[in-house]
Amino acid sequence: MFGLFKRDPKKKLQQAYERKLQAAMEASRNGDMRANATLTEEAEEILAEINRLKAQEG
Hints:
Helix content: over 70%
Number of domains: 1
Structural class: mainly alpha
Strand content: under 5%
Distance between the termini: 20 Å
Protein name: Lacal_2735 family protein
InterPro entries: DUF6435 (IPR045493)
Keywords: Coiled coil
Pfam family, one: DUF6435
Largest sheet: none
Number of helices: 2
Order of helices and strands: HH
């Protein structure tokens, strides 16, 4: 019953993942490929964490 108000960590990670991808896209548009690569790598790490949490649930 008290788990009803517990925050979902996957939702927060998903939002962080989407923000990183957006920042990577903007860096790419500005011609900063090094920042694009760094941000994309960070986004992939977040995605791996999301997938790990999904695997623990199911």
